[in-house]
């Protein structure tokens, strides 16, 4: 097992693209670190540099005590799992799993025992004689992961290993990976663009944008204490609600609404306020909570009933916040539900209440959970209530 240290690592491709920019990150022995960020932000490039498949332009990479920056891939005891599985189609599962050992002339008996052991761990015991074409996507992915395990590497590197699976299988495999992770306890760097996958699998999650590390922290801290608008908007689904606001004398003003501002927010100034959809609740009849001054009266535009919860969309009498961070997160990925230049917000509410489009409802905001960001740089202006656990790089949003 191994610590992985990245020290100001950068990658500039021959065409001048700076795909990774001065990334410093220490991945602890046995830690499961997830690299997450939108497509093209440099995740695969960084992973391939750790694997030794890509030259490092600047900085150093250490595995355990060794500097491996200029060592070829075969001299690093690391296993990589790719998105497309890269199985040998003409070989059975058993042959696929044992191929690396066969190349290394591992004795037959030992090879067989190891393959059986790994096949049992990843649940392929009964499928050893099948060819990849006779397996489901999930089973193929298990072969790919099993093949990585056969080597007993110091670390695993996984590049979007679940992204070729359909949604349901992906959730099932995610749970299997989580189990496997506990069982193996081997240092792992796992790349995904899916923030839900990142949040459910990572001991810590490193958020990247345009080659630059934004924040590294536990899933809980990322969600509760994002360092900038980009992280705030990238992490969490539905996306955080935003609005331009003025803070003055302990109150926040926006869209004709005045809310008390909690103590961790700045006293004065122009900010972008952020409120998570789960921090807004519906006030129902007979609700005895006092929540004075924290309520919003709005008209529901759209109701999404997900069975376990409802997302209710409404708009504020304020312009939509167009922040670069938010645009790059949502571009092409989220359907614009309401073609509206006003700020469209969403609240996640209980599934048992009946709410219809057009209903006038009263909502309550959890004031102590309101975030504030610098409208120009995107940096968080909220004083964190607990220090984060990892490095943070505050950059423009
Ligand atoms: P991700 O895995 O986060 O989607 P990549 O690491 O694949 O991102 O790519 C990061 C950036 O580097 C992208 O802009 C991509 O186009 C560019 N890139 C990747 N590989 C090469 C290459 N071989 N030559 C030039 N540019 C590349
Ligand atoms: Mg990639």
Textual characterization of the structure:
This protein has helices spanning 43-51, 93-103, 108-121, 137-150, 167-184, 195-201, 219-224, 229-234, 324-330; strands at residues 4-12, 18-27, 32-36, 58-63, 66-67, 78-81, 155-159, 187-192, 204-209, 212-217, 241-248, 251-254, 257-260, 269-275, 280-283, 295-305, 309-319, 342-350, 360-365, 371-373. The strands form four sheets. A six-stranded mixed beta sheet has the order 6-7-8-3-9-10, with helices on both faces. The model is unreliable at 331-338 and 393-397 (pLDDT under 50). By secondary structure, the protein is α+β, with helices and mostly antiparallel strands. Strand 4 (58-63) and strand 5 (66-67) form a beta hairpin. It starts with a strand and ends in a 24-residue tail after the last strand. The chain binds adenosine-5'-diphosphate (ADP) and magnesium ion.
What would you say about this model in short?
The chain is of the alpha+beta class.
Short descriptors:
397 residues, alpha+beta, 9 helices, globular, binds magnesium ion
**Helical residue percent band:** 10-25%
Distance between the termini: 37 Å
- What's the helix count? 9
SS strand fraction: 25-35%
């Amino acid at each position: 097992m191994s610590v992985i240290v990245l020290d100001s690592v950068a990658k500039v491709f021959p065409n001048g693209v700076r795909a990774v920019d001065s990334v410093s990150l220490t991945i602890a022995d046995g830690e499961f670190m997830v690299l997450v960020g939108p497509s093209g932000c440099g995740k695969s490039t960084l992973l391939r540099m750790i694997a030794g498949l890509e030259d490092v332009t600047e900085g150093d990479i250490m595995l355990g005590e060794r500097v491996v920056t200029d060592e070829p891939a075969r001299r690093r005891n690391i296993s990589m799992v790719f998105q497309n599985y890269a199985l040998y189609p003409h070989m059975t599962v058993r042959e696929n799993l044992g191929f690396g050992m066969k190349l290394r002339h591992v004795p037959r008996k030992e090879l067989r025992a190891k393959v059986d052991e790994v096949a049992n761990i990843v649940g392929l015991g009964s499928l050893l004689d099948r060819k990849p074409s006779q397996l489901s996507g999930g089973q193929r992915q298990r072969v790919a992961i099993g093949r990585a395990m056969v080597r007993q590497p110091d670390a695993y590197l996984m590049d979007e290993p679940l992204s070729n699976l359909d949604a349901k299988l992906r959730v099932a495999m995610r749970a299997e990976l989580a189990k496997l992770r506990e069982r193996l306890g081997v240092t792992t760097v796992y790349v995904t663009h899916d923030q839900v996958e990142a949040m459910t699998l990572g001991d810590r999650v490193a958020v990247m944008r345009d080659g630059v590390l934004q924040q590294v922290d536990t899933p809980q801290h990322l969600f509760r204490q994002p360092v900038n608008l980009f992280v705030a908007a990238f992490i969490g689904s539905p996306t955080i609600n935003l609005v331009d606001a003025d803070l003055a004398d302990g109150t926040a003003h926006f869209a004709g609404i005045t809310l008390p501002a909690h103590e961790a927010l700045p006293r004065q100034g122009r900010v972008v306020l952020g409120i998570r959809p789960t921090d807004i609740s519906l006030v129902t009849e007979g609700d005895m909570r006092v929540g004075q001054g924290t309520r919003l009266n709005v008209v529901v535009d759209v109701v999404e009933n997900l069975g376990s919860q409802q997302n209710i969309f409404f708009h504020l009498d304020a312009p939509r916040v167009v922040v670069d961070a938010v645009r790059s997160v949502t571009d092409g990925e989220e359907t614009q539900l309401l073609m509206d230049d006003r700020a469209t917000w969403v609240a996640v509410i209980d599934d048992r209440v009946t709410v219809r489009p057009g209903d006038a409802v009263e909502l309550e905001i959890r004031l102590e959970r309101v975030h504030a960001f610098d409208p120009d740089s995107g940096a968080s202006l909220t004083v964190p209530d607990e220090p984060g656990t990892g490095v943070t790089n505050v950059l423009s949003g």
